[in-house]
Design brief:
elongated; 0% strand; 5 helices; 80% helix; mainly alpha
Length: 137
């Protein structure tokens, strides 16, 4: 890959992490009206912090891996109470009127956190591999 392509890829990656950082911060902020806000705010804040550090290329690879493991285990613990909720019910109303809908929203939010953290880990490993190959030439 030539230098302009690498620069554009780097800018796109930084932009993608910036967008996800804002989404995770918004997700943390809306937890203020939740009955148990601290745990939810912590997971979304950790994901936002990971995105911010990745934007500066200062994120240790273990951090998003740990966040994804936590998010996927937590999402899995909600699965049996949340499965079967139609996707239309998740966006039909902003208010929480049904516990199953709330738990389905929480499960999908944690899944988004886990997936994005896996994407970060994958990009980090690919970037390290390219750097290793480039340094041996």
């Amino acid at each position: 890959m030539n230098q302009p392509d690498r620069d554009m890829t780097g800018r796109f990656w930084t932009l993608a992490n910036g967008i996800m950082l804002l989404m995770f911060l918004f997700s943390a902020a809306v937890q203020l009206n939740d009955p148990d806000p601290l745990a939810w705010m912590a997971v979304y804040a950790a994901a936002a912090a990971a995105c911010g550090l990745e934007m500066r290329r200062r994120l240790p690879v273990w951090a998003p891996a740990a966040i994804s493991i936590i998010a996927f285990i937590w999402a899995g613990s909600l699965y049996y109470r949340a499965h079967g909720v139609p996707l239309s019910a998740l966006i039909a109303e902003w208010e929480m009127r049904d516990l199953r809908v709330e738990e389905a929203r929480e499960m999908y939010g944690l899944t988004i956190v886990g997936i994005w953290m896996i994407v970060i880990v994958t990009v980090r490993w690919a970037r390290a591999r390219v750097a290793k190959v480039s340094s041996t030439r």
